[in-house]
Amino acid sequence: MKPFVPKLVYFEPEALSYPLGKELYEKFTHMGIEIRETTSHNQVRGIPGETELARYRNAKATLVVGVRRTLKFDSSKPSAEYALPLATGCMGHCHYCYLQTTLGSKPYIRVYVNLDDIFAQAQTYIDERAPEITRFEAACTSDIVGIDHLTHSLKKAIEFIGATDYGRLRFVTKYEHVDHLLDAKHNGKTRFRFSVNSRYVIRHFEPGTSSFDARLAAARKVAGAGYKLGFVVAPIYRHDGWQEGYYELFQELARQLEGVDLSDLTFELIQHRFTKPAKRVIEQRYPNTKLDLDESKRKYKWGRHGIGKYVYVDEEAQELEETIRSYIARFFPAAQVQYFT
């Protein structure tokens, strides 16, 4: 698929006082993209659309360039100590995505141009914990790879972390647009993860993202560039023929990665889940979705913050975990499965 290009761009005036802000303004002006001004990246008004659904779809194609004022990083446990705030929002239309509810009425994509401030804060966190390793997750609230061909913020972050003694970086993507990241000086301190799934899940629930085959080809490129590699299998979803679909995933993954050094390969396994608020939003935004959101078939599980979610009943979840782990053991016997949740 072609790299993402916004249809509409908003700028905070202050963003133009930063080198990246100026660069992006010139780039989008040259591309002929409509540019508007907004007083705050948190209060963007005037996104076109006659209905709420139309405004939502237009917002997913809107980029907002702003300044990150809150420099207290969120926690990203258990996978990392902190979330690295380079961007918020995603151009993909994954029906099940948790950003449907966490971003609420702000589904537009935000990028932050005060990178020096963000990296300085990251260095502070690293120094506070030294000589312990401090891990940063760069894709908590966005698919940062999907927009980095425009900003190169992620590439700068990779090289910033690569120059530290005790910092480590990780992120996950559904996009194939990795070529500009292959020559980054990562020094082995970044884990590049791909979100993968069966062809059924990608075809029916992940519109606006790279294909199954394109993601696997990109993973081979990344591994060849010396990055630590990982895969997030999520959401693991029980569809007709799911056993065969996931078997094909790992079989093809092994074929694509043949000859690549996989001595430090990781997998993270996440079963499909949803909340009641998410269900309402999903059904409004994707009214024809095939996603099974029937609470009567699920188990209710309390979350860490008092918000419950619906997961598969224990017997079905156990079957999912045992099946996926058996495929990994067959095709990637040296890989580490970090968790199933």
TrEMBL record:
InterPro entries linked to this entry: rSAM, SPL, SPL_Bacilli, SPL_firmicutes
Q: Which residues form the Radical SAM core domain?
A: 76-304
- Database matches in Pfam families: SPL (PF20903)
Say which domain of life the source belongs to. Answer: Bacteria
The main enzyme category here is: lyase
Any one Gene Ontology MF annotation carried by this entry is: lyase activity
Q: Which residues cross the membrane?
A: none
Q: Which key words are in the record?
A: Lyase
Q: Please give the NCBIfam families that the UniProt record associates with this protein.
A: photo_TT_lyase (TIGR04070)
Task: Tell me the protein's name.
Answer: Spore photoproduct lyase
UniProt organism field:
Geobacillus icigianus
